Structure formats: C-alpha cells, structure tokens
Amino acid sequence: MTSTQERRARPETASVAETLRVAVEVALPSLAGGVIKRRPAVLGVAGKLQLDRPAVRLLRRLRERHYGRPLRLRVPGRSVELALSGADVKRVLAGAPTPFSPSTVEKRAALGHFQPHGVLISGPADRPARRAFTEAVLQPGRPLHELAAPFAQAIAEEAAALRRETTLDWDTFTVTWWRVVRRVVLGSAARDDATLTDQLGRLRLDANWAYLHPKRKRLREEFKRRLTEHLDRAEPGSLAAVIAAEDTENTASAPDQVAHWLFAFDAAGMATFRTLAVLASHPAEQERAREEIDGTGPAQLSFLRACVLESVRLWPTTPMLLRETTEETSWGPAGTTVLIFTPFFHRDPELPYADRFEPDLWLDGRAAENPALVPFSAGPAICPGRDLVQFCASTMLANLLRGHRFEPVAGPVLSPERPLPATLDNFHLKLGLVG
Q1: Taking the CB of residue 333, how many other CB atoms lie within 10 A of it?
Q2: Is 400 in contact with 159 (CB distance < 8 Å)?
Q3: What is the pLDDT of residue 298?
Q4: How many Å apart are CA 258 and CA 233, to the nearest integer?
Q5: What is the pTM of this model?
Q6: Distance (Å, rounded) from C-alpha 4 to C-alpha 45?
Q7: Which of helix, strand or coil describes residue 408?
Q8: Cα-Cα-Cα-Cα dihedral sign, residues 29, 194, 230, 113
Q9: What is the model's pLDDT at position 250?
Q10: Above 60 in pLDDT, residue 8?
Q11: CB neighbours of 365 closer than 8 A, spacing ≥ 6?
Q12: Dihedral through CA 141, CA 144, CA 145, CA 149, nearest 10?
C-alpha cells in the first residue's frame, strides 16, 4: 500500500455521540433481532419500524462527515473500526485470513455454543485444512454440484406438498425447507428428524448471547451424537456421502462443519421465501422467472439465482460482517475489530437501484463492479456454500412457480412502483397461490 493510500485508510475517531448513535441505531437492532438465530417478535417490530432505514441514513451522514475514511468508535477497552467506503470493504474482505481474520472474539463466543471447531472460527493452524475440506464437499465455483440430480429430486418431492396449499406462510414453508435441507445434507432417512434441527435451534438461541450465556454442554453433546449417527450412515445422494469419501483427518471435525452448514441453510430459507414474496408482487419478473423453467431436472436457472442474490442484497441475512486484525495495521493494533454493516452498502442511497428489485444487475456486470455488494461475503473467506445455496433456493422457487403464480396476501407492500422496505419480516409474510 502506498503512503497516500495509507493516509486515506487511517481511521478518524468518532465522537462519543456518534459512537452512541452507531450502537443504538446500527448494532443494537441487529443484535436484538438475533445474529445467530432470528427472533420473530423482534424482527416483526423491526419490520414495522423499518429500523434499517435510519441506520443507513446515519452511516451515510458519517461517511460524508468523515470523507469515507474508517471510523474508530469509542468503545471502552476495545479497538473497533467501522468501514464507510466500498474500497475499504474490498480491502478488508480480501485480506482474510491475515491480516483481517474472520475468526473474531464475538464469533468464537457465539459459534462456540454449537460448532467450536468450525472453519469460520478456526485459528491459522487448523483453518487451511478445514477450509479445503469444506470446499471439497460443498464444491464452490460449480453451479451444479456433483449431486445436483438427487438434490433436485428431493426438492421437487418436498415442494409438491407446498403446491397443494392455497396460501403459503413462513411456518408452512419452513417445515418443508428443513425437510429439504436434512435430505440434502444427511439423506432421506433424516427427513423427519426435526428434533435434530430443533436442538440446533436451541443452541443457536443461546449463541445469540455469545459469552453472556453459559454453554449447554449436554445438549450440544446430544446434538452432536444425533448428527454423527446421520453422517455415519453416509446415505448415497447426500453431502454425508461426499464427506465419507473424503479420506482425510479433517473428517473428525465434520460434525462442526455440518452444524454450520445447517445454520447457514436457515438463512438460505429466509432468502428463498423473501425472493418468492418479492416475485409475487413483481408480475413481470415472476413471469420471466417462470419462462426460465423448462424442465424438471437440475438446471443453472440464471435468472432465478439472480433473483435470490437480489433478495439478499435488499435484505442481507448477515447484516454485520466482522473481521479481527491479526497484526498492527493502519486500522489499529492487533485485535482490532472491523465492522462492515452490509445494509448500508447494499442500500446506499447513491445507488440508482438501492430500493428497487433489479436482479439484472447480477447478470449484466453491475454487481461485479461494486465491491461493496457482498451477499455471501467476499475474498478468501467467502461463503463456500454459496453455489449450493443458490442451487437449492432457485430449484425450490422453480418448483413452486412451475404452473402456478403467487400473489401477496399479508405483509408489507413490495410494489415495483414504490421503494421497497428497508427491513422485511419474513415471519409474517403470507402468499396466495393463483392457478
């Protein structure tokens, strides 16, 4: 980095009032809503009050006031920096795992409740091998996983039940979504093991409190035992079978990696249902998506994938990306926490498409030109399951839209004629099936 770039990257220091406003308007709503597992009641209030909107306005003012430079927050006993420019987002995410490590003190405290050996919170000695194992199983960079055919069949079979409903709400959708997830990850024998994912859900609720909640070791051991039984079965046509074929020492940490995949698939379900809701209120895009569906087997479904990405841009499932410096940098001493608030960059008022549904930006190169659009993070620590998630989400949408149209029944207005809401409560959306 040149000396000029270093000067531009050096943080300014926030005032006490600015720090308090960031805490109250940016951090607190995200933490209250549940970072590891969403709290429906809180998200319902956040949706009604549109809490992401004032957070975006605040960060825009701070960016203008501090010329887009990183902002050092006045947090007692901690070094915390807030990214305010797309260039800094790119630099920080590209700098993983050193000097900007994805394993932060907050993540270790939270994720340690249910996956203490997961790659995301692994140290430098364990991370490379665990990341390589995860990529070998999830196969990022391949639009169609090697098991795309059995995955597509499982999704089609489960989606058939939803197509018989006259209305579709979150509670109905999520039961089916988890059946799909358990079949894809663990095999059809795990389809009805709701106890497994309920146990994980309880551990994730504890994880929302990070180090403020004691760890439930007995529950975690029971969850791990149950999960391991499914993995040991290595059912053909599931990720468990791919894991079993990976003859490496890292299979010992497989339950922790799989626990993270299950956790991530929950967010994927939220993104899928939100995508369906916005398509239901955007007839032209819904029709275009239906035109893309021309078969029943696995397909890349480029437009539907773009719709999913656009949904995550509009309503990020990971609103706060955290990195922790492993050495002294221009951002501060080693151990500095860097915060990237994704709703600000995804809904930046300077973007011409900030508040509208525009999936084409993921197809025509505009999204690639903006380093601050990071629906699955970016850089070396980018989500390794991004392609599998997009496949499962787009395939589920294709099965629901094939021969049917949807229209909104309850929830906020998602009209192409007005700005889309900054916060979208998926728990209280309801859609009607037409035809």
Answers
A1: 10
A2: yes
A3: 86
A4: 14
A5: 0.95
A6: 45
A7: strand
A8: positive
A9: 65
A10: no
A11: none
A12: 180
